[in-house]
Input
Amino acid sequence: MNNNNVASQPFDDQRPGTSGLRKKVKVFQTPHYLENFVQAIFDTQTDLSGGSLVLGGDGRFYNREAIQIILRMAAANGVAKVIVGLGGLLSTPAASCLIRKYKTDGGIILSASHNPGGPDEDFGIKFNTPNGGPAPESVTEAIFSRTKQIDAYRITDHDDVDLDQVGEIRIGETLIQIVDSVIDYTELMADLFDFERIHQLFNSGAFTMCFDAMHAVTGPYAKHIFEERLGAEPGTVINSTPKVDFGGGHPDPNLVHAHELVTNTQGHNGVDFGAASDGDGDRNMILGRDFFVTPSDSLAVITANAHLVKGYTSGISGVARSMPTSQAADRVAEKLGLECYETPTGWKFFGNLLDAGKITLCGEESFGTGSNHIREKDGMWAVLFWLNLLAVRQQSVESIVREHWKSYGRNYYTRYDYEAIDKAAAEALMQSLGDKLDSLVDSDIDGYQVAYADNFSYTDPVDSSISSNQGIRIGFTDGSRIVFRLSGTGTQGATLRVYLEAYEPDPQKQTSPTEEVMKPLVTIAQNLAEIAQHTGRTEPTVIT
Ligand code: VG1
Ligand code: CO
Output
């Protein structure tokens, strides 16, 4: 067995975005492309040499090939132990769980999350630190700097390792452990949730559920937990076999892409509870019968009800939400006397708050919810939280949310995405909107009074690091808000996201269709940012 030093040249586009490095599969297949990035991880994360690593991915096209390459590179870089998910599969939350449980020096997760998979679609890679969370900006920037200088990488000659048997193999000095992460992950969930009570709910015969794994990584976890452990009817989990191309769909749990699930929740025969997760299992969508729970509301409901759920009965220390997420959680925090933090988009910004014990719960409007049990958002966790809550409160999803609105007010919420627009046009739009901000404060726009208009900058309360230019916020005196930012996960052109929120405290006015309530704000947003003029688009690609 030989360790080879392979000469290479830097690529200039390996800066990680909101969640790791995401590119088309074809880009990752370019000779040395993946290898350079992985070597930059080994070069900057020096504890890995002689240390241990968790490795796995969401099973998309190129997952297995990339794992074999990374294993041979880990051996050549002196990693002592690599813990790999069976079949090369690890959901993002399961990877975080393993890093923490086995106290490894980090993890490499292969995923482009909810983006489609296949030879012409997307692939991704990210490094998680020993706390189990996505690397903070200081680490991703160090990796990026290294990719700009790299001139060689180390790789061992070795045959492919069998990823499909639990057990131990060696590549030279490096121990490879293939583990069934469903076991470790289930154990953690059983600690946090009242499995007995949820089992009784399913046994009662009066409760039905449908979970859509979207042919992505959560299939095996969901089958085991819902059907085998909690006694849900066989067939409760649909699309449960992970596929390299996610069955040709977008593994994105929203009303547009999880249409089979949505149909199953509709009408008289609809199930009582519907849920889905994304490509890598960190996102979740929650549905009742004929009822959609916005992710922002889900975070607020979870916060308000945490004391009813096994793992959280002793109380929570605080809550955080990403900036574009609706302010529903803020209302709950205020009532409960808890601190509520507003962070930039991306889970990495919750890490310090969780590590410091400042928060127990956190979430994003993009179908992400989680707690201090790991350092990633966790789709199955959110679904189990809701199940536990339904078992305790013995009410429908809809009545729980409607009661919540009555107590705290309703934050109507919607997001408009303009995908694959010209990058320069998107940047020009943000620039000219940014230039206007000062003049907007205190002005009146179509009857809405501007309270503040700024470009969000975040100072981390734990390490004082500053992240600026995180999106434009325009807040109005009635509590409504418009946020504009450019996506950091896309692989084609630019994506403009416009987030809209309106606050309604009056219970009599909490049943209007969201589109109707949002209309005036949509018009303001389109005009202010001159979206059509800059991008040529009069309609968004996706509305969630
Ligand atoms: C999007 C979401 C963000 C989320 C990120 C990663 O980022 O808006 O809230 O953390 O995806 O989620 P962006 O930069 O495209 O808006 V996942 O499930 O794709 O890892
Ligand atoms: Co994801």
Observations:
- The chain has a mean pLDDT of 96.
- The CA atoms of residues 410 and 509 lie 9 Å apart.
- The pocket of alpha-D-glucose-1-phosphate-6-vanadate (ligand 1) is lined by residues 18-19, 113-114, 278, 282-283, 322, 345-347, 364, 366, 368, 487-489, 497 (CB under 6 Å).
- The chain is about 35% helix and 25% strand.
